[in-house]
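Before drawing any conclusions, I looked closely at one protein's amino acid sequence and its backbone structure tokens, quoted below without any editing.
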Amino acid sequence: MAAALETLVRQDYPNLQIIISDNASTDGTLAICEEFARGDPRIRIIRKQVNEGAVANFRTVLDAAEGEFFMWAAADDYWYPHFISRLLPALRADSAAGVAMCAVDRRLPDGAPFDLIRFIGDMNPNGMGHLRLLGKILSGAKYNLFIYGLFRKPLLQRAMRHFPVVLGGDRQFIAQMALACRFAYVDEILLTRTHQPKNFDAYMETMAKRGTLRRQMISFAGTILGSSVIPWWRKACLPVALMQYFMLSIPQKQFKRLNMIKIIARKFFISPRSLVMAIGLFGVSAVIGGFLAYLNVISSEFAVGTLSAAWLLVAAVLLNRGWAIRAQKSIERKLSGNDQEINRTLRELRYLSDTLLHPDLAVARTKSNQLSDHAVQRIEKHRKVVEFVRNLEDSRIREVYVQELFPGIEKESVPIGVINELTGHANKTDMLYVSAVAKHIGAKKMFEFGTYMGRTTFHLAHNNPDGQVFTLNLPPERDPRYAPYMGVLFKGREEEKRITQIHSDSREFDTAPYRQQFDFVFVDGDHSYDLVKNDTQKAFELIKQGGVIMWHDYAPKSDGLVRFFKEFTQDRPLFRIRSTCLLVYIDGVDVMNHKLGNLPHSLELEYREENPYLVESIYHS
């Protein structure tokens, strides 16, 4: 509750009234609300002595609202600061629109991603006709989420006279609104909703009970016919709408039985629909055969024999089809296994060549006492490089040149001050690339994990004069070794005005107020496996649609980081900038199939094309 209220009071739209209806709560909810109300005069609390139910609670806050526009807010959801300020112009731009909504990021109660709901392509409701929109709603699409959008209050108050008090009433209510007004949509994630699996299970259990579907159908018909916001001529669609609603509800009611049908169909490698049709045909043919036998048109023996022969033939075809598909899949598995064996053999040859190139690797452990410290260090460095290459080969990482991935980036000018001359990196261009990429994509809002002296922080702000930079680092008291140097390179400079320092352990950092807001995220914090995993997960929560994430120190020295990305890239491939320690993710880009830009023709390019297996010599070990 506190987190939800925090995101509401932080809305950047100034003229806001927050009404809380406490439906006779028995936990600490009221105390939390009262604490917020004491610090914010915009908050008004209505206390009820008895629990009147969800729909009555909806009406209470709607009737108490004074503004022209209205939205409902659930206690376990989170709103981005510009939720209202982005939806309101979209609603005002279309006088026929009665509600505006955004894309929704749905999360499980523990914060793990569940899914992302967007209404794009033929699902985009902007300008969509009433009947077509109703059809989409009754097909099962998630338009019921529009109930948490921004409404025109007068229209909503009239529609609330017929709010269905049944299971799935939110979908019926939104169906009513679809026939009453148009929907406006902003394709931007501005709301995070908490998806409760237990609620879904309870919904399916209630749907399976006798009488639920009948009550839903009666309620839906009454809502449409009794609505004062739907023009009478649009109510003529009710018979078709009822049929659609029935077809939507049946799969939900028969959820377990349908799952059983899917399992049986999968065994025969046919679609569930084909299996149901086959069973239906068997039933129809049995009825027809029995009827003809009853009329003495055919003998009962002939009817049974013909029916049995036909279905034995169907069963034989299905069994043979299943056998053929299984045989085909077995051959495919064997071929795939052979490919994997070949790849393993090639990797082993590569490892053997590595050992031959550095023969001391094989005996370094047993003879380290016979070697000088310098030799031991060199051998250890070679060992790290070999291990790094092995992990790289097992990862789904596509190696590219920066100009191939960002055509035209070579024209960007970046100050040389971004280079740290004292760094141990053999190649000091990494930070030049980071700053150039942020500038090239025109990043307005940037986030950095790991501040240290603030060299990259400063140059991100310097190269993007209209941009804001948020940089995260441990609090000074928890990082005394780095504390004297933290942010010294941007302190007292003009760019500091556009830099926000966040002092927090990244594991404790709450991304909720910042989600989906950043064009560019740079991850260069702790390189242990667990912290890289944590920072990566949060980087994806911060990035907005079409944004870019870059990671630093993908190199032999960062064993935990390399191991994490070996696992991570199996499901989500990444780019690696050649001859650097940088990994790149671009939202909306298919890494393995992305068409790269062309490099300018040169002698160096010719040499590399003639030597495609040229091994890079620069690794940060």
Remarks:
- The CA atoms of residues 54 and 593 lie 49 Å apart.
